[in-house]
Amino acid sequence: MIRTRPLFTLEVAVDGLHLAGGPPGAERRIGDLPSGRFAGARLSGVVLPGGTDWQTLRGDGAVLLDARVVLRTDDDALIAMTYAGIRHGPAEVLAAIARGEDVDPASYYFRITASFATSAPRYEWLNRIVAIGTGHRRAAGPVYEVFEII
Asked: Going residue by residue through the chain (150 aa), what tens digit of pLDDT does each one get?
């Protein structure tokens, strides 16, 4: 049995998509992640500018995520966060998301796995964990509930 405990809620802004294209069924788009916020019982802070989310649009309608962001905690520690994930669901739900509509998170699948790297002594435990999360796409960007696997 897998046990988890809450790590934080992560909200990330997405500022435009660069449509790089690619072969049919594996098209790429890259989203700029200029800001955001994370908050949890053990760490909270902001997402620094410069993050990106490299997405692969599969032929079956699923979107694969490959994101990298830098978190700055409220006590000024820097943490590199990488996460990979997948989002898929009924075509009408995905179309509503693409139009910027708020849809029920239970109506589609949006999951991530995350890992961290830091030299900050207070948060070095993050270097040795794996985290998972559930996502919800809003017009301004995704919101993730992130959990440490214990």
From this structure: 999 999 999 999 999 889 999 998 899 999 999 999 999 999 999 999 999 999 999 999 999 999 999 999 999 999 999 999 999 999 999 999 989 898 999 999 999 999 999 999 999 999 999 999 999 999 889 999 999 999
Residue type, 88: H
- Host H or E run for residue 36: strand 36-39
Residue in 123, 127, 57, 61 with CA at minimum distance from that of residue 90: 61
Q: Which residues contact 82 (CB under 8 A, 6 or more apart)?
A: 66, 67, 68, 114, 115, 116
- Beta-carbon-side half-sphere exposure of residue 128 (alpha carbons within 13 Å): 5
Is this structure's pTM higher than 0.70? Answer: yes
Give the residue among 47, 72, 26, 57 at the shortest CA–CA distance from 142.
47
